[in-house]
């Protein structure tokens, strides 16, 4: 029997995909089902809410990062032991890296998974028009199975009845609604919703909200998903014996990591040892490399700067260091926020300065020099999303493929960049970093 599978999409961002996905995850879990959540597109924040609602770590499915075999393998590995796969889409159903949604869209992932799509519509200001909207999405791409509609922010039972009648007249299944003012909104900040560790919806409230949804109908649709092929892929299949210890920054300032990226490192023989640049006096003893991911260093600039012992220890660390986005900001000479300029580690020349407008988008990059993750000429994929800017460095790490823009910094041992790399798309880069951490090449040795 194929895995039950459901894709939650919308006409546009802000319609309520995360809310509906969290409600469904909590409701189906309360029914005794093991629900595996996924998020389409590059996102570290929404998955924390899906993880909290489902009780299983949310995974990323992205058609820009991954070719079909690897995407299906990431999906399959995440779903081990699950009864239902619940996939939250990104932006609008057909929004992606190209104009028609062929790449990096929810529609692309839905077609690869052969899964039914439920369209979440913000119906606060519409009634009969919901049918025209849904019909357009249903008919836009015949290869996408639009299986029904959930209406969000509905004014009451009469409003819901009008919406249901309009959809049923158009031959589009009505799968229920969430009422306006249900208390399911989450606070936001400059990178999107706040993390689930800071504010989350109570499971009981999520389950109660599902009373106006057709859970049995949704489950029947999910169980009608087609079985998936098992094509060959490049991801490691068996976990190697431990051969390297890598210190990984994990605290309130640093926490943006794709679980699939960390699992690839572990599959290749890495032991990941968490540490806190905010509160620990130094990195963990005996680690052969450091990994500093993204997060919110700007919110903790004063505290990070005040931990002089940690800054000095990282500055004098002898092994390879990889840093992305927030990690790059921390390795810079200073972090400049509206509150002032705060000294940071100082391994990367120049200061990171907060700004009002974001820089975001997919990135395909080519290595300009050897580093702990890549040889010169290697091509990797990732994305950027940040509100800080930095001056060019004398030793840029990457050039954007097909362009002249250079970015990041590397001296052969340290690699720091705004690009969040997705290593399941380049397992050879993960292999190189684990080897470097073990002292076998590509980045020097750890402190004795």
From TrEMBL:
EC class name: ligase
Gene Ontology molecular functions: ATP binding; cobyrinic acid a,c-diamide synthase activity
Pfam families: CbiA, GATase_3
Protein name: Cobyrinate a,c-diamide synthase
Functional summary from the UniProt entry: Catalyzes the ATP-dependent amidation of the two carboxylate groups at positions a and c of cobyrinate, using either L-glutamine or ammonia as the nitrogen source.
Domain notes: Comprises of two domains. The C-terminal domain contains the binding site for glutamine and catalyzes the hydrolysis of this substrate to glutamate and ammonia. The N-terminal domain is anticipated to bind ATP and cobyrinate and catalyzes the ultimate synthesis of the diamide product. The ammonia produced via the glutaminase domain is probably translocated to the adjacent domain via a molecular tunnel, where it reacts with an activated intermediate.
Gene3D superfamilies for this protein: 3.40.50.880, P-loop containing nucleotide triphosphate hydrolases
Record field: catalytic activity: cob(II)yrinate + 2 L-glutamine + 2 ATP + 2 H2O = cob(II)yrinate a,c diamide + 2 L-glutamate + 2 ADP + 2 phosphate + 2 H(+)
Domain of life: Bacteria
EC numbers for this chain: 6.3.5.11
Annotated site location: Increases nucleophilicity of active site Cys: 420
Name of the gene encoding the protein in the UniProt record: cbiA
All copies of domain CobB/CobQ-like glutamine amidotransferase, residue ranges: 245-423
Record carries keyword Magnesium: yes
Cofactor needs: Mg(2+)
Keyword list, A-Z: ATP-binding, Cobalamin biosynthesis, Glutamine amidotransferase, Ligase, Magnesium, Nucleotide-binding
Active-site residues, record numbering mapped to chain: 325 (nucleophile)
Residues of the CobQ/CobB/MinD/ParA nucleotide binding domain: 6-191
Pathway annotation from the record: Cofactor biosynthesis; adenosylcobalamin biosynthesis; cob(II)yrinate a,c-diamide from sirohydrochlorin (anaerobic route): step 10/10
Family the entry assigns: Belongs to the CobB/CbiA family.
Example GO BP: cobalamin biosynthetic process
Comment field (misc): The a and c carboxylates of cobyrinate are activated for nucleophilic attack via formation of a phosphorylated intermediate by ATP. CbiA catalyzes first the amidation of the c-carboxylate, and then that of the a-carboxylate.
InterPro entries recorded: CbiA/CobB_synth, Class_I_gatase-like, CobQ/CobB/MinD/ParA_Nub-bd_dom, GATase_3, P-loop_NTPase
């Amino acid at each position: 029997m194929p895995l039950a599978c459901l894709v939650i999409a919308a006409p546009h961002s802000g319609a309520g995909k995360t809310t509906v996905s969290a409600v469904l995850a909590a409701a189906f879990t309360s029914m005794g089902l093991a629900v595996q959540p996924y998020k389409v597109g590059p996102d570290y924040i929404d998955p924390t809410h899906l993880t909290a609602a489902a009780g299983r770590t949310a995974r990323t499915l992205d058609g820009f990062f991954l070719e079909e075999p690897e995407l299906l393998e990431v999906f399959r590995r995440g779903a081990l032991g699950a009864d239902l796969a619940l996939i939250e889409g990104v932006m609008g159903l057909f929004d992606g890296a190209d104009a028609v949604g062929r790449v990096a869209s929810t529609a692309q992932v839905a077609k690869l998974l052969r899964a039914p799509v439920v369209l979440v519509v913000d119906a606060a200001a519409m009634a009969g028009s919901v049918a025209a909207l849904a019909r357009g999405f249903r008919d836009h791409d015949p290869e996408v199975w639009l299986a029904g509609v959930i209406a969000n922010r509905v004014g009451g039972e009469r409003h819901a009845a009008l919406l249901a009648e309009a959809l049923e007249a158009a031959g589009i299944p009505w799968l229920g609604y969430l009422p306006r003012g249900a208390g399911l909104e989450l606070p936001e900040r400059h990178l999107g919703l706040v993390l689930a560790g800071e504010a989350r919806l109570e499971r009981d409230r999520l389950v109660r909200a599902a009373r106006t949804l057709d859970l049995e109908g949704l489950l029947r649709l999910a169980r009608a998903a087609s079985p998936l092929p098992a094509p060959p892929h490049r991801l490691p299949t068996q976990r190697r014996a431990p051969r390297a210890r890598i210190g990984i920054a994990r605290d309130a300032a640093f926490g943006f990591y794709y679980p699939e990226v960390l699992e690839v490192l572990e599959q290749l023989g890495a032991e990941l040892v968490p540490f806190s640049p905010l509160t620990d006096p130094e990195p963990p003893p005996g680690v052969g490399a450091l990994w500093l991911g993204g997060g919110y260093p700007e919110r903790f600039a004063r505290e990070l700067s005040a931990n002089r012992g940690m800054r000095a220890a990282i500055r004098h660390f002898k092994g390879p260091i990889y840093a992305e986005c927030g990690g790059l900001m921390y390795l810079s000479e200073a972090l400049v926020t509206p509150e002032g300029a705060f000294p940071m580690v100082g391994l990367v020349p120049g200061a990171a300065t907060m700004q009002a407008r974001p820089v975001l988008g997919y990135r395909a990059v080519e290595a300009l020099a050897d580093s702990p993750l890549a040889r010169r000429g290697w091509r990797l994929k990732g994305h950027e999303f940040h509100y800080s800017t930095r001056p060019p460095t004398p030793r840029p790490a990457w050039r954007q493929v097909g362009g002249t823009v250079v970015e990041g910094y590397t001296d052969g041992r340290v690699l720091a960049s705004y690009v969040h790399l997705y290593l399941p798309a380049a397992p050879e880069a993960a292999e190189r970093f684990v080897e470097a951490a073990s002292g076998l090449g590509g980045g020097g040795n750890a402190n004795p």
